[in-house]
TrEMBL record:
Active site: 313
Molecular function terms, GO-annotated: 3-phosphoshikimate 1-carboxyvinyltransferase activity
PROSITE patterns assigned to the protein according to its UniProt record, in alphabetical order: EPSP_SYNTHASE_2
Annotated ranges, domain Enolpyruvate transferase: 7-422
Protein name: 3-phosphoshikimate 1-carboxyvinyltransferase
Swiss-Prot/TrEMBL catalytic activity: 3-phosphoshikimate + phosphoenolpyruvate = 5-O-(1-carboxyvinyl)-3-phosphoshikimate + phosphate
Binding residue positions for 3-phosphoshikimate: 20-21, 25, 165-167, 193, 313, 340
UniProt-annotated stretches for the region Disordered: 1-20
Pathway: Metabolic intermediate biosynthesis; chorismate biosynthesis; chorismate from D-erythrose 4-phosphate and phosphoenolpyruvate: step 6/7
Species the sequence originates in: Halogeometricum limi
Localization per record: Cytoplasm
The entry's keywords: Amino-acid biosynthesis, Aromatic amino acid biosynthesis, Cytoplasm, Transferase
One GO BP annotation of this record: amino acid biosynthetic process
Top-level taxonomic group: Archaea
Length: 432
């Protein structure tokens, strides 16, 4: 599906979807336990992949008709060996978290995914599984899926790089809690995307799992049971998704009007940094923490410098903001953003370039030279990547002429009703 955005002004209220990161963890944590209900889960292509994996391991996930409750009968500590290959589709989080879980099984699990996921790095996690006495292999021996994992990972001490994906750490912490020995993780390099491990530690504590942060990294004792207080866990709103709504308001709110984003209660999400980024660029953003509401109006933005080491998923949104702002926006520490659904550093450089933006791409830095030319509508490639699609759609609100984003259906990965939400704010959106 392609979506064509015409220049539009936006106003009104919109609710961000529940957090993808919390939902994945909440579902798998419930799977590791005996029984739990996940309230307000994100129901999207990626989180459905995690639900299917829990089912494949012998759990049972049951979504209420209004999708507000997911009841999970867990596999209680030890996953069954799945009857079939587990397809994680487009979801890196599913593949990493499920790899460490599958490694606990007595037999072998085969994991695969779509073209994008089969090109993403899994090698360090496979090596960690092997170091912990399980089997972790890439069928093509290139560190990428398809993967073969299992043979009863036992636990112990493992060293792993921190600068490829924090999801390896999350995966090992979640699985480590149900091993006999527990797992001590020593980071070989500086941890990138660190707030995602904070999300994990917070959620594990809420499921009654003890963890510690050590001088070398992280540690989780074994022999623990997953059991959230009251048998329920509630998922907060998603700040990566909020970033598109906030950016839409900052670049295109109607004169004297505001965009109010609901579902913005504070949590461990590093991507709440988008609030400060938008403020730093010159927009007035009010954040009512108790109500979980962000209010933004349109402003003339100016460039800024942002280190996205902790917040890789914000890069596409910040690049769009930079293309609308005056002056240079410098996005630093972004090499790991190249290992996502697509190489997002290159994708944003090239696609914003098609809209007339001047962009300089370096290995670890993206500079958008805003204000030199006005953005012009163009046909841009969403690169089969939800975040690229949504960021380019926001740019389309203020480009001169129509912007057509290809592959727009990929918003299904994290924000299934993104285009309906944008249209409800007044954006002109046409599907073809
Ligand atoms: O753990 C998570 O929920 C995520 C961690 C981040 O990935 P990396 O740790 O691979 O950077 C982030 O980009 C991804 O969207 C979600
Ligand atoms: C990179 C992302 O997710 P994942 O790693 O789960 O595919 C994302 O949502 O931007």
């Amino acid at each position: 599906m392609d979506v064509t955005i015409s220049p539009s002004r936006v106003e009104g209220r919109a609710r961000a979807p529940p957090s993808k990161s919390y939902t994945h963890r909440a579902i798998l944590a419930a799977g590791y336990g005996a029984e739990a209900t996940v309230l307000n889960p994100l129901v999207s292509a990626d989180t459905k992949a995690t639900m299917r994996a829990v089912d494949a391991f012998g759990g049972e996930t049951d979504l209420s008709a209004d999708e507000s409750r997911l009841t999970v009968a867990g596999f209680d500590g030890r996953p069954d060996v799945p009857d079939d290959v587990v397809n994680c589709e487009n979801s890196g989080t599913t593949m990493r978290l499920v790899t460490a879980c599958a490694a606990l099984g007595d037999g072998l699990t085969v994991l695969t995914g779509d073209d994008s996921l089969r090109s993403r790095p899994q090698g360090p996690l496979l090596e960690a599984v092997s170091e912990l006495h399980g089997r972790g292999e890439s069928t093509r021996r290139n560190g990428q899926a398809p993967l073969v994992v299992g043979d009863g990972m036992t636990g112990g001490t493992v060293s792993i790089p921190g600068d490829v994906s924090s999801q390896y750490i999350t995966a090992l912490l979640m699985a480590g809690a149900v091993t006999d020995e527990g797992i001590d993780i020593e980071l070989e390099t500086e941890l990138k995307s660190a707030p995602y491990v904070d999300i994990t530690l917070e959620l594990l504590a809420d499921y009654g799992i003890e963890t510690t942060t050590t001088d070398e990294g992280f540690s989780v004792p074994g022999g623990q049971s997953y059991d959230p207080a009251g048998g329920e866990y509630e998922v907060p709103g998603d700040f990566s998704s909020i970033s598109y709504l906030l950016a839409a308001g900052a670049v295109a709110a109607a004169d004297g009007e505001r965009v109010v984003v609901e579902g913005a209660r504070p949590s461990a999400q590093g991507d709440s940094a988008i609030v400060d980024v938008v403020r730093e660029m010159g927009a007035d953003v009010a954040w009512d923490h108790d109500a979980g509401e962000l209010t933004v109006s349109q402003a003339s933005l100016s460039g800024t410098t942002v280190d996205v080491g902790d917040t890789p998923d914000l890069l596409p949104t910040i690049a769009t903001l930079g293309a609308v702002a005056d002056g240079d926006t410098v996005i630093e520490n972004c090499e790991h953003v190249r290992y996502k659904e697509t190489d997002r550093v290159r994708a944003m450089a090239e696609e914003l370039g098609k809209m007339g933006a001047e962009v300089t791409e370096e290995e670890d830095r993206l500079t958008i030279h805003g204000g030199r030319t006005d953005l012009a509508g163009a046909t841009v490639d969403g690169r089969h990547d939800h975040r690229i699609v949504m960021s380019l759609a926001v740019a389309g609100l203020v480009a001169d002429g129509e912007t057509t984003v290809t592959g727009a259906e990929h918003v299904d990965v994290s924000f299934p009703n993104f285009f309906e939400t944008m249209a409800s704010l007044g954006a002109s959106v046409q599907r073809s």
